[in-house]
Amino acid sequence: MKIVLREDVKRLGRKGDVVKVAKGYARNFLLPKKLAFQAGNIDLEALKRSTAREQKRKEEEKKNIEGLAQKIKALSLTISMKAGGDEKLYGSVSEQDILEALKKEGVVIDKKKIALKEPIKLLGVYNVPLRLSEEISVSLKVWVVKE
Prior knowledge:
This protein has 147 residues and is an alpha+beta fold. Helices cover 33% and strands 29% of the residues. The chain has helices at 23-30, 44-74, 95-104; strands at residues 2-5, 18-20, 36-38, 76-81, 88-93, 120-122, 124-131, 137-146. The strands form 3 sheets. It has a 3-stranded antiparallel sheet with strand order 2-1-3, with no helix packed on it. It has a 3-stranded mixed sheet with strand order 4-8-7. The longest helix is centred in the middle third of the chain and has 31 residues, at 44-74.
């Protein structure tokens, strides 16, 4: 059965792709969840125009994200925390602390984009990875200093 995808489906295709799938898969999963519709019911020109608009929107979004990535690369955040004599922090630096420091610098991103494996618990300089999109990642330099 030929279908057109309304959204990206993992291991099947991207939005707007015309793909051939088993009837049961289409009838029981893709069509009820409104992830796709039958290819026989569409105007291919309208689909092409819609896909072109979506592609243009994605390119503009990518340009904006690349600009944000350049701005973040130029930043160096300093977060001051209370610490003991052995450079251990009383508490830790989490994603929320980094997010607040970024907001002070005028950079607003979603907390989920900060890919900190575990909270920072020692004084020092850290490179914190940020995943701004599927393709664009950037490293943010964070200085954790004694208050």
